[in-house]
Amino acid sequence: MNGHEERPDQDGARAAQAGADEAEPLGGSEAKLAELEDRWLRAVAELDNVRKRIARDTERLRAEERDKVASEWLPVLDNLERALSAAEGDGDADPVVQGVRAVRDQAVATLNRLGYRRQDQTGVPFDPRHHEAVSTVERDDVAPGTVVEVLQPGYGGDQRQLRPAVVVVATRAE
Amino acid sequence: MNGHEERPDQDGARAAQAGADEAEPLGGSEAKLAELEDRWLRAVAELDNVRKRIARDTERLRAEERDKVASEWLPVLDNLERALSAAEGDGDADPVVQGVRAVRDQAVATLNRLGYRRQDQTGVPFDPRHHEAVSTVERDDVAPGTVVEVLQPGYGGDQRQLRPAVVVVATRAE
């Protein structure tokens, strides 16, 4: 009976661990029965745990990959906005600029649909989850801690933030 | 001994299946031992299989999500190219057009880095894995079946194709 392979194959080494720790020679028949039933129940319970973990990991894996791929597009969108900023002097009537602006809006909508909301609001309280403050400015017309300028928009939701908005924050005027 | 729960908990129902099928009352002591050892080995083997499946599924899940998120950006890139086509009359010197063209190149490079090569070559043989032919044209200067025009570029590799290139294919001139 003990001649059975404890490890069904080479790759099974880790998988068999749940039971293999107790794979000492067994004593009397009753003890053997108790021991074997215990091993079986442990293996079944571990199988259950592994299957539950798969369900959790699946969503986490997808979200990680979504973050990674979506992040790759942020520099493209940033540069598109830079090209638009440079074109602002050309006037809104330029059909090329209008077309490119529509593409920018489409890119922002695409990120939003993937779960990454654009964060470029001013007048909101500074929130360290969504904002990165790079400078402050004295202001007496807004509450201290108010975002008064967005230097680079952020993208993300409450759960997953692709990157924070880079902002300027108001301080109390002296 | 048979008073033991075969299913460690409610959610364990599916997980316990590997062993539960054989959970009939056991006969003599030797038979019990053989049966229990068999159950244990089956559960351990199943655990091993499940763990191997996780490794395979992980890469498949990531690739699926990568396809899905990257696909969302193709309409954005298509529209950027349309805006550029509309601007072609304005001449290459326009700094806005130059900037947008650089963004287009950056977007194509991003897709390439993610594993989706741009397919917009003419002069290559029609390949149903990468091309979708929407029309043909009689030509006597190229071999029949040659791609002579790309109406919309495709993106993808040999393994994973985001979308085929939409092409016009040469036929033998009558």
Describe this structure as you would to a colleague:
The structure is a homodimer of 174-residue chains. With 174 residues, chain A is α+β, with helices and mostly antiparallel strands. Chain A has helices spanning 17-20, 29-72, 74-86, 95-113; strands at residues 118-119, 131-139, 147-152, 154-156, 161-163, 165-172. Chain A has three domains: 10-68; 73-114; 116-174, Nucleotide Exchange Factor Grpe, Chain A, domain 2, CATH 2.30.22.10. In chain A, strand 4 (154-156) and strand 5 (161-163) form a beta hairpin. In chain A, helix 3 packs antiparallel against helix 4. The interface between A and B is large, with 63 and 63 residues.
Residue windows where pLDDT falls under 50 for at least 5 positions of chain A = 1-24
Structural class assignment of chain A:
alpha+beta
Q: Could you report the average pLDDT of chain A, rounded to the nearest whole number? A: 83
Write down how many β-strands of chain A occur, each being a DSSP E stretch of 2 or more residues.
Answer: 6
How does the overall form of chain A come out from the CA principal axes?
Answer: elongated
Helix content of chain A: 40-55%
Biggest sheet features of chain A: 3 strands, antiparallel
Oligomeric assembly: homodimer
Main traits of this protein?
homodimer; 174 residues; alpha+beta; Nucleotide Exchange Factor Grpe, Chain A, domain 2; 3 domains; three-stranded antiparallel beta sheet; three-stranded mixed beta sheet; disordered N terminus; GrpE_CC (chains A, B); coiled coil (chains A, B); Protein GrpE (chains A, B); stress response (chains A, B)
